[in-house]
Amino acid sequence: MPQMIFVNLPVKDLETSRDFFAKLGYSFNPQFSDERTACLVISDTIFAMLLQEDRFKDFTKKDIADAASSTEVILALSADSREKVDELADAALANGGSPANEPQDLGFMYGRSFQDPDHHIWEVVWMDPSAVEG
User: Fold this and answer.
1) Helix, strand, coil % (nearest 5) of the chain?
2) Residue 74 near residue 116 (C-beta atoms within 8 A)
3) Using 50, 70 and 90 to split pLDDT, how confident is the model at 131?
């Protein structure tokens, strides 16, 4: 079985977060979702557990970082093409996301970033496969 990752993210309003990611074309696994948690399916092996802040606090003794004023993590997703990078970033910005950083175009690598409604930073990056061949 391939290794999987479940990124846990605190959210202020679960329905707002669900709606945002659904508009980006993602689905949710109902088996791991309830009224305070939504399991966002990014791929067969990548999931983001969107947890209302009160539920998120059940998993940590630390304070929850205020993503509007500090950055604890940047989530980076690969894309199959430059067009897919633009497609996802444009959809995020059109559906309640906000800009995070300027686009990066290095020729062989292209990326854009956005913030979700809770200000978590997401990067979407394409890299030319020939640039990584050894």
Assistant:
1) 25, 35, 40
2) no
3) confident
